[in-house]
Amino acid sequence: xxxxxxxNLPVQDLDRSVAFFSSLGFEFDPQFTDENATCMIIDDxxxxxxxxxxxxKTFTPxxxxxxxxxxxxIVALSADSREEVDEVVSKAVEAGGTTPNKKxxxxxxxxxxxxxxxxxxxxxxxxxxxxxxxx
Length: 135
Description:
- InterPro entries: Glyas_Bleomycin-R_OHBP_Dase, Glyoxy/Ble-like_N, VOC_core.
- This protein is α/β, with parallel strands linked by helices.
- The protein is built from four helices and eight strands.
- It has helices at 14-23, 53-56, 82-94, 129-132, and strands at 5-11, 27-29, 37-43, 46-52, 74-78, 104-105, 109-115, 121-127.
């Protein structure tokens, strides 16, 4: 069985978060969606669980970090091209996200990121493997 990853993120307003990520092209698994949570599908084995803050609190004794004030993690996603990087981040901004950092262009690797409506940081990056290996 292939390994899977489930990133769990607290959100203030589940419907607002679903609308935001839907506008970026992500889909959700209705089998794992209710008023407390939804399962955002990144790829066949990669998922992000968006959990309403009160529900998220049931999984940890620690306080929830305010991602608008501090960084708890950076979720990085690969893209198939530089254009896809720009497209995803532009869609995030159009949907209400922000771009806290400038584009990073290191020749073989290109990236840019956005901060979602709850302050979580997302990096989208493209790596040209031919250029990276010197071919």
